[in-house]
Design brief:
By secondary structure, the protein is an alpha/beta fold. It is built from eight helices and eleven strands.
Length: 265
């Protein structure tokens, strides 16, 4: 069975407390993105949630990253923060047309994040997922879904995600539903429980566990100890894995990512 790639990373690259902790003293701010992409397997871009980016920026971001690196892109809030998701077609096209295809093979999954107040409506969500294309201007697209309301923790949502070959984001945070069911050819996790009291954000044993989980996802297995809607179903195909150290004690995110990367080597 073929195995996928595991990419571990952080959210964004501009954060003042990382200067002198992650970024070396004296590193120019203009060089921080290149430094971050050289030390991470992936970075989740959050700025795209708030506004469209220029084509020039996408070209620059692609040039800053080494071969094998990928950016995950958070979808525009104008696509997801709406009462009727089925009416998002025009906004989705506008979002996809902003120039992200300039990243080429450095374009990773698109993260479609929904507000905590957005409840699951099967028909509306099915219509929304039908609007997400498998490719755009010759570039294959992958879609990751992050619902934040408990109503999504149901078999019907899992079935819809699988029908449309979209991954359900595994959110490691008590505040949000944690759904470990795998519904696509890649896994996407956002680990949000890092602590500033831990030099690497997480205790060594916790990082060891996440390394085991990452390998299990890569190998097509269903790791134990996670929350499943349909129950753990091992024996699937190998898949690519994206794990992001997000939120929690943000100052520790790069250290947490690097510690997990070291365990996966």
């Amino acid at each position: 069975m073929s195995k996928g790639a595991i990419r571990v990373g952080i959210g964004g690259w501009t954060y003042a407390p990382w200067r002198g902790t992650f970024y070396p003293e004296g590193l120019r701010q203009a060089d921080e993105q290149a430094y971050a992409t050289a030390h991470m397997g992936a970075i989740e871009i959050n700025a795209t949630y708030y506004r469209l980016q220029s084509e020039k920026s996408w070209v620059k971001w692609g040039e800053a990253a080494p071969a094998g690196f990928q950016y995950a892109v958070k979808a525009s809030r104008y696509c997801t923060n709406r009462r009727v998701l089925a009416e998002a077609g025009e906004s989705i096209v506008k979002f996809l047309d902003q120039g992200m295809i300039e990243l080429g093979d450095k374009l990773g999954p698109i993260l479609w994040q929904f507000m905590e107040t957005k409840q699951f409506d099967p028909d509306d969500f099915d219509a929304f997922l039908a609007l997400l294309p498998a490719a755009h201007k010759g570039i294959a697209l992958r879609h990751a879904l992050e619902p934040r309301h408990e109503s999504f923790a149901c078999a019907e949502f899992v079935a819809l995600a699988r029908k449309h070959r979209a991954a359900i984001v595994f959110a490691d945070k008590d505040k949000f539903p944690s759904i470990a069911d795998q519904t696509a050819d890649f896994a996407y996790a956002r680990l949000q429980c890092s602590r500033e009291s831990e030099p690497a954000g997480y205790a060594p044993g916790e990082l060891d566990r996440w390394a085991r989980v990452a390998r299990a996802w890569r190998d097509g297995e269903a790791p134990k100890g996670l929350n499943y809607v349909e129950g753990a179903k091992p024996g699937g195909k190998g898949r690519d894995v994206y794990i992001f150290m997000i939120s929690g004690a943000k100052v520790r995110a790069p250290a947490a990512a690097e510690a997990l990367i070291a365990r996966l080597r």
